[in-house]
Write a structure and sequence with these properties.
- By secondary structure, the protein is an alpha+beta fold.
- It has four helices and two strands.
- The protein has a two-stranded antiparallel ribbon.
- A hairpin with a 5-residue loop joins β1 and β2.
- α1 packs across α3 and α2 crosses α4.
- The longest helix is centred in the middle third of the chain and has 13 residues.
- It is globular.
- The termini are far apart.
Length: 82
C-alpha cells in the first residue's frame, strides 16, 4: 500500500500538478485528494491507476520494514519528450 505523501512527493519529483495526474491516470480529482490526504479509504483500482501512471514516469515507490516510505525517480526512465 502506498501513502498519500508518497504520491505528493512523486508528483513533485516529476513536476506534475494534481490536474496532470488526474488526467494521465483517468481518475477524479476527489479520488486523488482522498488518496493524498489519507483520510478516507481509497479504492484499489484508483491506487493501481496512480501507481501505474507514476511508474511509467520513472517513479519507484519505497516501503521499508521499519515503516519508512518514500519515492525514487529512476534516472533511466523515459522522459515525456521521448
Amino acid at each position: 500500500m502506498i501513502a498519500g505523501r508518497q504520491v505528493r512527493a512523486a508528483r513533485g519529483l516529476i513536476g506534475w500538478s494534481r490536474d496532470d495526474l488526474v488526467s494521465a491516470a483517468g481518475i477524479s480529482m476527489s479520488a486523488l485528494m482522498r488518496l493524498e490526504s489519507g483520510k478516507a479509504d481509497t479504492r484499489s483500482s484508483t491506487i493501481n491507476k496512480v501507481v501505474q501512471t507514476l511508474s511509467r514516469q520513472g517513479i519507484e515507490f519505497v516501503s521499508r520494514n521499519d515503516g519508512g516510505v518514500g519515492v525514487i525517480l529512476n534516472p533511466t526512465a523515459p522522459s515525456e519528450s521521448d
